[in-house]
Amino acid sequence: MAFKTIKRPKISLGERFYLQSILGGLWITIKHLALALAGKSRNKKELAGSGIGVTMQYPEFRWDKHLPPYYRGYPVLVKGEDGRERCVSCQLCEFICPARAITITPGTVKEGDWDKVEKAPKEFEIDMLRCIYCGMCEEACPEQAIFMSQDYLLTPTDRTQSIHNKARLYELGGTRKGLVNKWNQYK
């Protein structure tokens, strides 16, 4: 079997101690320091800062105005314009959730409520400690019943507050306008 010996290149002393990388990082830090001391740091206007640094002064100023429209907060359930539940307990969101954060117990609908709906969730829970905020539950929902909110302030004080039940999810979600497939008489 033929083989070829490959000689490794010699590493200089500067490369051995990562001098080039260290000096490059220090240069960036010194540049930001000089801009901050001159009061010309980046994002001064957007973050409502004093120009010293690029950190937002959090309790006084928040990201609400700066959030992009594609921001994914935590998942919530929504009701229709007339206050009825949109969720039909199809459990697609539970099956597609990679973190297994959603738990649904299907229930039956009272007789005469809706003609086309056969199920509604008896229990619906989302464990926010397990949720990875991926948005797959929103994409899988055929009835537009679950949405990713624009809220980012979710601070539970204990473990039980981070498990949102059906009532809490509807409270956070509110109502949503638009066509709902299960109430479409032409479907």
Task: Describe it.
Its EC number is 7.1.1.-. [4Fe-4S] cluster 1 binds at residues 87, 90, 93, 141. The chain is α+β, with helices and mostly antiparallel strands and 187 residues long. The chain has two domains: 16-66, no CATH class; 75-183, Alpha-Beta Plaits (2-Layer Sandwich), CATH 3.30.70. Helices cover 22% and strands 13% of the residues. The protein has five helices and five strands, in the order H-H-E-H-E-E-H-E-E-H. It has a three-stranded antiparallel β-sheet. Strands 1-4 form a two-stranded antiparallel sheet. The protein is elongated and about 80 Å long.
Query: Might you state the CATH topology name of the largest domain?
Result: Alpha-Beta Plaits
General shape = elongated
- Determine the mean pLDDT: 83
Strand order of the largest sheet: 2-3-5
DSSP strand content: 5-15%
Outline of the structure:
This protein has 187 residues and is an alpha+beta fold.
SSE layout and pairings?
Elements: H1 13-16, H2 19-38, E1 75-77, H3 92-96, E2 102-108, E3 119-127, H4 136-140, E4 146-148, E5 163-164, H5 166-173
Antiparallel strand pairs: 1-4, 2-3, 3-5
Which features does this protein show?
single chain; 187 residues; alpha+beta; Alpha-Beta Plaits; 2 domains; three-stranded antiparallel sheet; two-stranded antiparallel sheet; 5 helices; elongated
